[in-house]
Specification:
By secondary structure, the protein is mainly alpha-helical. The chain folds into two domains: 64 residues, Winged helix-like DNA-binding domain superfamily/Winged helix DNA-binding domain (Arc Repressor Mutant, subunit A), CATH 1.10.10.10; 140 residues, Up-down Bundle (Four Helix Bundle (Hemerythrin (Met), subunit A)), CATH 1.20.120. It contains ten helices and two strands.
C-alpha cells in the first residue's frame, strides 16, 4: 500500500520495514528491494527511502553489502549506541556528523599511516578505482567512497575505531551522498577535486606519513562541509579548496 502524507514519510517507511524485520516477515539474511522498488511500493521519493534505510542501519536491523544490496542483519547486532531519530538529511544533523568524523577519522588516518599493511593499501586502492568508475552512476560513487573510509578505519589497527566507523556507515553514506549530489548540481567540475582529496589520503597512508595523512583527511572533511555550505565564520574563511 502507498504511504499517506500526514505523518513524516521516513518515519512511516522505517516503521513498516522495521516491523517486517522484527516480526519475522523479513528474515535474517534476506535481501531488501532496491531503493527504486521501495519508492514505488511506498509511493515516496528515493530520498525518503534513503533516510529510512539509514535509520534501519543505525538500529542494526539491516546491513549494506557493497555491490550486492541491503540485507536483514543477523540477530544480536549491536544496537546500544544511537543518535536518535534526527532526519539524516537535516543540515544541522549532517554538520554534527562531519564534526564527529573530524574527531575520529583524522586521527584514524594518522594511525593507518603507521600501521597499514600492503593488503590495506590494496583494498583502499581498489575502492578508489571503483569510486572513479561509478562516479556517474546511480549512487554517484557513494558505496565505494564509504568502502574507502571503512578500509582506512580497519587499517588504523584500532578495533574500536573500526567498530564505530561501521556503526556510522549509514549516516556516513547519507552524508557522502548529500555532498556528492549537492556538488554535482552546484559545482559540476568539482568531482575531480573530490577524487584528488581521496588520492592524497591514500598516498600519505601508503607513504607511512602520519602528519600528511592527518592533514589530507582533515582537508577532505573540511572541504566536504564547504561544498555542502555547512561552514560558518572563521571556518568558512579557512575553507580548504
Amino acid at each position: 500500500m502507498k504511504i499517506g502524507r500526514p505523518a513524516p514519510l521516513a518515519d512511516q517507511v522505517y516503521g513498516a520495514l522495521a516491523g517486517d524485520v522484527l516480526e519475522g516477515r523479513l528474515v535474517a539474511g534476506a535481501r531488501l528491494p532496491t531503493e527504486a522498488e521501495l519508492a514505488v511500493r511506498f509511493g515516496v521519493s528515493r530520498t525518503v527511502i534513503r533516510e529510512a534505510m539509514a535509520r534501519l542501519r543505525n538500529d542494526g536491523l539491516v546491513q549494506s553489502r557493497q555491490g550486492a544490496g541491503v540485507f536483514v542483519a543477523e540477530r544480536g547486532a549491536d544496537r546500544t549506541f544511537r543518535f536518535g531519530g534526527e532526519a539524516v538529511v537535516n543540515a544541522g544533523h549532517i554538520r554534527e556528523i562531519f564534526e564527529l568524523r573530524l574527531g575520529i577519522e583524522v586521527e584514524a588516518a594518522a594511525l593507518a599511516a603507521r600501521r597499514r599493511t600492503p593488503t590495506d593499501v590494496q583494498v583502499m586502492s581498489r575502492a578508489l578505482l571503483e569510486m572513479k568508475a561509478t562516479a556517474e552512476g546511480p549512487d554517484l560513487g557513494v558505496a565505494a567512497d564509504a568502502a574507502f573510509h571503512r578500509a582506512l578505519a580497519l587499517a588504523s589497527g584500532n578495533s574500536k575505531i573500526a567498530a564505530f566507523q561501521k556503526y556510522l556507515a549509514g549516516f556516513l553514506e547519507e552524508g557522502i551522498f548529500a555532498a556528492r549530489e549537492h556538488t554535482r548540481r552546484t559545482h559540476p567540475g568539482m568531482a575531480g577535486e573530490v577524487m584528488d582529496e581521496h588520492v592524497a589520503i591514500l598516498q600519505a597512508v601508503k607513504a607511512e606519513d602520519g602528519e600528511a595523512a592527518r592533514g589530507a583527511m582533515r582537508a577532505h572533511l573540511v572541504n566536504a562541509q564547504g561544498r555542502l555550505g555547512l561552514l560558518e565564520g572563521e571556518a568558512r574563511r579557512g575553507y580548504l579548496r
